[in-house]
């Protein structure tokens, strides 16, 4: 009896997991640990230093807006490889920087890396390779950033304490280069490149995910739908209130009297919780729907912010970490689900690129807003509570957009 071969798409999943584990787990998650040592050793204000992260976000905005165009030029395989090279270069620049301009250049390179090798390209690859269980598979892949965040937060915290922040960045640069190898070897753009059809369509008349699922709107058609702009608004607000909190939380905890190593451990715990959350939210999306997934994330965010803002004991800090982890799928899984559920697959590459650009724009505004509020008031608490109120607005806007999308879909079926 002939042994059945392993579906090649699982090797693509492995490469995507490595990209998520290293690029997001190491390139993004521990950034908050560097704020205090860099600003204190080089004499920067936190607001001025945070512009590094804003430039990263602005770069992501520009490149994500061109995502469909870039895929057409390079293909997803080359884009992921180039992205990891950019990330390694950014880490190296950070390791030698003594003035803000070089940090800013590194931020630009890191923004390009995220655009080329993270959420947009990974979700597009999975849409090409899998027609079944896409939510769970994306949850598994993006759980890599949570596992990586947990491990690398502990490692980076120790590297900074033992060797200094420069050496920590240099080690990170070498890890990025190593992670580029499996991406080069394993990633393929389409099942047809290996003579295959998408997983789940083996016995179907449909041979690609583009013909098997709701096509929805092209990008041009989506631009004429008012709920498209409501979706853009809620995604901007997600960016405003999520990633900036992750970056600032270690500094907030140390300001409130917690030990630096404990704060690093709490950051790691956020990403361990996030790994489980992404698997759970992906499964919940496949099993139930986007509404349930979104509601869980928003409730978790509200509770996490309250624990962080008023953290006085270790158990409050731990509760913050566990709950915030369950809110952070808003930045990855939920964005891709919004694109497919509200607008379909026809214009996915362009629409998800716009959504991720919008998310990055929110981060670009949120990081300095949070840090300049600290410079003015000496505390993050007031702005954290404002962010909690914004989370409620996000869910309200989502419900309006979702109902409008359902009306559009019903109207499309009757025509």
Task: Please outline the helices and strands.
Blueprint: H1 9-27, H2 31-42, H3 46-65, H4 67-96, H5 100-117, H6 119-129, H7 134-163, H8 165-186, H9 209-212, H10 219-222, H11 226-241, H12 243-255, H13 260-287, H14 290-309, H15 314-325, H16 333-343, H17 348-377, H18 381-414
Main pleated-sheet profile: none
CATH domain topology: Growth Hormone, Chain: A
User: How does the overall form come out from the CA principal axes?
Assistant: globular
How many DSSP helices?
18
Instruction: Compute the number of strand runs.
Output: 0
Q: Strand fraction band?
A: under 5%
Give the CATH superfamily: MFS general substrate transporter like domains
Summing up helix and strand content along with how strands pair, one would put the structural category as: mainly alpha
Write down the overall mean pLDDT: 89
Number of domains: 1
CATH level-two architecture:
Up-down Bundle
Poorly predicted sequence stretches spanning 5 or more consecutive residues: none
Distance N to C terminus: 51 Å
Q: How would you spell out the order of helices and strands? A: HHHHHHHHHHHHHHHHHH
State the helicity in percent bands: over 70%
Q: Can you tell me the CATH class?
A: Mainly Alpha
Radius of gyration over C-alpha positions, nearest whole angstrom: 21 Å
């Amino acid at each position: 009896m002939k042994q059945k071969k392993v579906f090649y798409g699982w090797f693509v999943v492995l490469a995507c997991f490595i990209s998520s584990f290293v690029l997001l787990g190491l390139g993004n998650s521990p950034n908050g640990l560097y704020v205090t040592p860099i600003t204190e050793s080089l004499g920067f204000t936190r607001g001025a230093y945070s512009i590094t992260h804003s430039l990263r976000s602005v770069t992501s905005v520009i490149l994500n807006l061109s995502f469909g165009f870039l895929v057409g030029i390079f293909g997803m395989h080359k884009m992921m490889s180039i992205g990891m090279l950019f990330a390694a270069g950014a880490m190296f620049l950070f390791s030698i920087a003594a003035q803000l301009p070089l940090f800013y250049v590194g931020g630009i390179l890191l923004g390009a890396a995220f655009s080329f090798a993270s959420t947009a390209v990974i979700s597009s690859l999975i849409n090409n390779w899998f027609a079944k269980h896409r939510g769970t598979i994306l949850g598994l892949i993006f759980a890599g950033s949570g596992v990586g965040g947990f491990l690398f937060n502990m490692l980076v915290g120790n590297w900074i304490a033992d060797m200094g922040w420069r050496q920590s960045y240099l080690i990170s640069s070498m890890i990025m280069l190593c992670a580029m190898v499996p991406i080069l070897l394993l990633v393929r753009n389409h099942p047809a490149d290996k003579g295959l059809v998408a997983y789940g369509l083996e016995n179907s008349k449909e041979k690609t995910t583009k013909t098997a699922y709701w096509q929805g709107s092209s990008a041009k058609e989506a631009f004429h739908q008012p709920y498209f702009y409501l979706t853009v608004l809620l995604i901007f607000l997600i960016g405003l209130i999520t990633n900036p909190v992750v970056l600032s939380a270690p500094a907030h905890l140390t300001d409130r009297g917690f030990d630096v190593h404990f704060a690093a451990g709490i950051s790691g715990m956020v990403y361990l919780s996030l790994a489980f959350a992404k698997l759970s939210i992906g499964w919940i999306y496949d099993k139930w729907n986007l509404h349930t997934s979104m509601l869980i994330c928003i409730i978790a965010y509200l509770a996490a912010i309250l624990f962080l803002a008023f953290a006085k004991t270790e158990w409050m800090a731990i509760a913050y970490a566990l709950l915030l982890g369950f809110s952070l799928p808003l930045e990855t899984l939920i964005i891709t689900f919004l694109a497919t559920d509200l607008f379909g697959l026809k214009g996915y590459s362009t629409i998800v690129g716009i959504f991720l650009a919008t998310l990055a724009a929110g981060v670009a505004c949120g990081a300095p807003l949070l840090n300049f509020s600290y410079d003015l008031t000496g505390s993050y608490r007031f702005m954290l509570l404002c962010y909690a109120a914004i989370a409620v607005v996000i869910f309200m806007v989502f419900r309006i957009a979702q109902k409008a999308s359902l009306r559009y879909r019903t109207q499309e079926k009757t025509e």
